[in-house]
Amino acid sequence: MDIEKLLSLIQEGESEKVEFKQKPTNTLSKELTAFANASGGYLFIGVDDNGKIVGTDIKTAQEAVSAAAQNIIPPLKLKTQKFSIDGRDILAVEVKKGDTLSSVGGIVYIRIGCSSRPLSIQEIVMLSSELGTLNWDEVPLLPFEIAKSEFLDWFFTEITKSRGKSIADEDRNRYLRSAGALKNSMLTNAGTLFFTDVKEFIPHARIRMIGMEKDQPIWSKEYEGPMWKCIESAYEDLLREVKKIEFLMGTRRVKMEEYPPRALREAIINAVSHRNYVINADVRIFLYPDRIEIKNPGGLLPGVDLEDPDHVPRNPAIYNLLYDTGFIERYGYGIQLIKKETEKNPLCSVTFKTDPNRFTVIFKKTLSMILDDYDKKILQSAVSPLKSSEIAEITGISKPTVLQHLKKLEQLELIRRIGSSSQTKYEVVR
Can you give the pTM of this predicted structure? Predict the structure, then answer.
C-alpha cells in the first residue's frame, strides 16, 4: 500500500474494511480476527476515531499486534507497514481474508459495519459450510427408522438402472454408510434429503418456480419432498413452460426448444446439489418473458473458478447419491455441460453470476438471428396496439404475410394479442 491509498482510506473513514486505533488496545485480537473472518481489511494505529492522524510509537504498536496475533487460532495472514505523515507515525496492518474461520479464546468474531461481534453457533456453521471446511450434508440428523422404505427401494433400483450395480439387501446399510447417507445408525442430512419427506425436518430444502411479468411475480409453485422428486417435478413443469419454436436455418425449417432441456435439467441439479443448506432459503426458478434464472443459496467455494471449475462439491454425500441414481452424469462436469448444450441452441445464451451468498444461472433468449426483415418491420411498427391491416399498411407487407409473421412473433413472446375477432390488435411486448 502506498501513502496515497493510506490517506484515501483514512479520509473515507471507518467501515467494514477499515478500523482506526489511536493506540494499541487489548481488543486487537478480536478486531484482527473479525476482519479475517469477513472480507479482510485494514487496521490503522495512530489515527483517532474521527480520522485525525495523532501518531503512535511504532515499536510498541508492532509488539502489540504481534502479541495479539499469537492469541488467534489458526494464525492470520498479516502485513504491517510504517508511515510517517507530518512527523507522526502510523502503523498500518493489512489483514487478509482467511481460508478458514479464526477464533480468539474459542470465540469467533466477524466484522459487521464499523464494529466486531461474536458469531452464533448457527452463523459459525453457515460460514464454515461456505468456506468448505464443514460438510453439512454428512452431519447425522435423524434415526434411520424414519427413512421411508419405498424411497430406499427406489434408490437401490435406480443404482442398478444407472450404474449397473446390484446391492444385496444385507449390504444396503453398508452402502448407505459409504455414500454418506448413514452415520452411527442415523440418517445424515443427505440421507434425510433423499429418504424422507424432508419438509418437517429441513423445511427450506425445496424448489420454488415463479412466473414473472414486468419484473413482478404473477404465479408461483413449490416443490417439496425428497430431493430427487423435487428435481423431477420441477424439471417436468419447466419443460411445459418451454416453447418449441419453428424457424428457417438456411434452407431448412427447424423446430427447436427455445431453451436447451438438458442444460435446464443440469442447472436445476447443480442448484440443488451445490447449494448451501445452512442458509434458510430455497432454490428458485424465475420465468421471465425473455429469460430463465435458476438461483441457489451459497456462492462458489473458495478456489473454484467459473472459467475452469474444478470438482469441489460443497455437499459430497448429496453429490454421491445423485451420481448413483443417474442425476449427475460425471463428476465435475455440470457447468461445462450447461455451456456445451447451450452452444448447440441458437435461440439462447447462458451466463453465470456468483456472489458470496448466491449463485445464478441465466438462460437468455437471443432471437435476433431468427428474425427476418418482415419480423423486424412488424416489431418496429407495433409500438402501440394495431390491427393486422394497420400493420400491413404501415410496413407495406401483405396482410396474409403479416398474419403469418405475427403468429411467429407471438410464439416468441415478442408480440402480444389484444382483443379478439375483428377487434384483435397486436402490440410489442416490452
Answer: 0.65
